[in-house]
Amino acid sequence: MLIKEIDYGTPAPKQPRICGNSNCGCASGVQQEVHADTVMVTLEIDGNNVTVPQGTSIMRAAMQMGTQIPKLCATDSIDAFGSCRLCVVEIEGRRGTPASCTTPVEPGLKVWTQTGKLAKLRRNVMELYISDHPLDCLTCSANGDCELQDMAGAVGLREVRYGFDGANHFDKPKDQSNPYFTFDPTKCIVCSRCVRACEEVQGTFALTIDGRGFASMVSPSEAQPFLESECVSCGACVQACPTATLMENTIIEAGQPEHSVVTTCAYCGVGCSFKAEMRGNEVVRMTPYKDGQANHGHSCVKGRFAWGYATHKDRITKPMIRAKITDPWKEVSWEEAINHAASEFKRIQKTFGRESVGGITSSRCTNEETYLVQKLIRAGFGTNNVDTCARVCHSPTGYGLATTLGTSAGTQDFDSVEEADVILVMGANPTDGHPVFASRMKQRLREGAKLIIIDPRRIDLAKTPHVQADYHLPLRPGTNVAIINALAHVIVTEGLVDEEFVRERCEPEEFNRWRAFVAEPKNSPEVTEAYTGVKAADVRGAARLYASVKNAAIYYGLGVTEHSQGSTTVMGIANLAMATGNVGHNGAGINPLRGQNNVQGACDMGSFPHELPGYRHISTDEVRHQFEAAWGVTLEAEPGLRIPNMLDAAIEGTFKGIYIQGEDIAQSDPNIQHVIAGLSAMECVVVQDIFLNETANYAHVLLPGATFLEKDGTFTNAERRINRVRKAIQPKAGYADWEVTMMLSNALGYPMNYKDPSEIMDEIARLTPTFKNVSYALLEEKGSVQWPCNDKAPDGTPLMHVTGFVRGKGRFMITEFVATDEKVGPRFPLLLTTGRILAHYNVGAQTRRTDNVAWHPEDLLEIHPHDAEDRGIRDGDNVALLSRVGETSLRAKISERMQPGVVYTTFHHVGTGANVVTTDFSDWATNCPEYKVTAVQVRPTNHPSEWQSAYNRQRDETRRIETTTAAE
Ligand code: SF4
Ligand code: SF4
Ligand code: SF4
Ligand code: FES
């Protein structure tokens, strides 16, 4: 089959990755990769020669030759500390017994790791530890997984001469405030691994060792309970703890796991790898996978702890149908549900035409599932009316980056940030939205990289322990393009352009046009200050900083895309990076931080109505013919309807049926009342989900979904990394989502007969040039690969646009600032912007069904003290939030993070209905909604809004389930 090869430039050589700590006491056994110019050192350990890179610790060198030196305070991923004195060695010609974890190798050293003297010293150390440790090993939750126990065995401890009757810590109370883990200080050996993990890995600095000597003990923040401290519950300390002092509650309750499955977190675009640790068919712990190439063994509270929704009682496990949305649901067999849905779609298409139906793919589902849904819509329904939730988040990224660079994807891998000299974060809140990557970013910032933040709010990253933004540009919502143009103005007018890069890599005419445009006085920081609200001097300083270093990287999020000029801002960002030569090398680039776990994959898989998999336009005959030949159908050449167009068409009466897999547009999309009107106007709404979500309130068929733990497949993260998802438990409803789509397709008369998701991936690879070499076998071998992965880049492409842009020459685009039509005025004088919070994910359907609600039980409206005072609002008051399209109510949180005139809320809780007030305004190019700019008024209230009252009345009514009919 003919597959058009696209030139993605020469793939970057894979960066050699050395374990983060060359002197760590790594127990993982991972060999250090060695740079060509690394100086190697040969020494003798226990009479054997070993050669290791300079700087390696003696402990690690010994480990390389298979000798395990006893240790307690050293562990991989954190710097060696040298406090426990268990790892002592003897070195010929040196006095004393140095700690091997902190002593670097030297040429010609003769080291002895096992001598009578060392054995005695180590036993003494262990004796001291054990004399202040409760000897309840048999009933301890760490029994079988306790390094203290292991070391007692390793050093041959047989007696404890000091007895157990002296001073000890046995009366210290447990801290059980954190819903996920328990702190039992009686078992603490004060190795400070937890403190160092919190500092070095997570970057939160929530723990200290309080007191001195015998009185010293671990303390969260200022001796607060964990839940009330600065701890963000990432679990790094729990993982680092060698004893049962910090222990997951699930392990305390269920016992140690007995097998594990490596899979990928289903929460955000970082795509962390985890070991799902199991007892039988039950997950008992999610442990971040050390070899995970996106997360390198770290995680956040969601991935590590918030997986309990998978077994929540609200899971829908039986298919259901109903004739009208006012009827109760009726549980039926899979066969009946599938046949009913198929016959309804057929009836609708027969009556109202082929284009009267469509579908929405899910960014939470796997690549394979997403691919199948768009295939079903295009080949089974015979229409291109397929869209995805990326419509409402990163569709401007697709448009903006494809236009300027030639393809819709971030340019770097996450590791690249380790070489950034300047990090520019725009419209993103990584510590909440992409926490594991934020920790990497903070590590680099602590090493000295500079930080520029462009955000209306003072996000956490602007000032956290040992990190402070060099520039925070707190712009007015809606003025992104003006700020980008002002930065470009400074770069162009102050001679900061990388002329050589532009000359060699970019279209000259377009560059010259752009240069003249941004140099116009209207784009200067002094002129734009009037409407961006950002001081001109700060814009100038930030522009000089960004343009002055070798490696400057831009990371951006939905604060860039979800605007009426979202695509313009993305193009403006690409202009900035190209003008300063910040594309095609490590430490630089343009990096969209993707929200949902597989939003990159959903876009890659052809979920947009105008694109087939691999971002190829449906109207291109050559491409379409490839798919027609493979799928055995004739495809429509015209793009289909986008989500907002489907809803409009439904209200107009021409669109009647929809298949929605794993999305909840009745909560996530803007102007909910319009969404509901569209859904209510349809005759057949088929929802496939793990819960009865908000959209299901307007559905006629409910097909139970499967969680990520219940299926095989792949997710693609924000760095284009294709990661395996592996089934850990059986699907609660009997089928994985791809199997359900297949059943529906077969019932519609379009046969699909895949036996395994790997066969779907094989088909994707056959039809998609950027996936040509991807297969499950390759993923098994490599762990993961980043597309493009083809003959030119058989191991994938960590870094894009190295020698040339995908489109050939980089294209500068004119980015004229056009103010949004959403204006403040006397009735609606404030601007509302929305976002998310660490504890929750998207519409909260999963995280609200976990103990994460302990951190965020409700959506709050953040408001500046001046705006609150003007309105007589106190912290915690109930307030009405009104816009031109709707009204809701929620509690106020007075916060100096906000600038006067701007309020902020999240959209994780159903009853708040933040999207009741957001409008239909959207990006000019892609229809991505303008969530980030809504003119609102806020005033005290003591009752729910009309919408909330109506919602509360109707919600239970539409969720009734009639269980009398026996289901399959
Ligand atoms: S859970 Fe994470 S943030 Fe909390 S104390 Fe432990 S390492 Fe620090
Ligand atoms: S809590 Fe665990 S990791 Fe922290 S000091 Fe105590 S024993 Fe060490
Ligand atoms: S939510 Fe994101 S950052 Fe957290 S563990 Fe999952 S993939 Fe990693
Ligand atoms: S492991 Fe080296 S001093 Fe603790």
What attributes does this structure have?
16% strand, 8-stranded mixed β-sheet, alpha/beta, binds FE2/S2 (inorganic) cluster, globular, binds iron/sulfur cluster, 968 residues
SSE inventory with pairings:
Layout: E1 40-45, E2 48-53, H1 58-64, E3 90-91, E4 110-112, H2 116-130, H3 147-154, E5 181-183, H4 193-202, E6 207-210, E7 217-220, H5 236-240, E8 246-248, H6 249-254, E9 259-264, E10 273-279, E11 282-288, H7 301-305, E12 320-321, E13 329-331, H8 334-352, E14 357-361, H9 367-381, E15 386-388, H10 395-404, E16 422-426, H11 430-433, H12 435-446, E17 450-454, E18 463-464, E19 467-468, E20 471-473, H13 480-493, H14 499-505, H15 508-519, H16 525-532, H17 536-548, E21 552-556, H18 558-561, H19 566-579, E22 590-592, H20 599-604, E23 611-612, E24 616-617, H21 621-631, H22 643-652, E25 657-661, H23 665-668, H24 672-680, E26 684-689, E27 701-704, E28 713-716, E29 721-725, H25 737-748, H26 757-767, H27 776-782, E30 784-786, E31 830-835, E32 860-863, H28 865-870, E33 878-883, E34 887-894, E35 902-906, E36 934-940, H29 946-958, E37 961-962
Parallel strand pairs: 1-4, 13-37, 14-15, 14-25, 16-17, 16-21, 17-20, 21-22, 25-26, 26-27, 31-35, 32-34
Antiparallel strand pairs: 1-2, 3-4, 5-8, 6-7, 9-10, 10-11, 12-13, 12-27, 18-19, 23-24, 28-29, 29-30, 31-36, 33-34, 33-36
The chain binds iron/sulfur cluster (SF4) (3 copies) and FE2/S2 (inorganic) cluster.
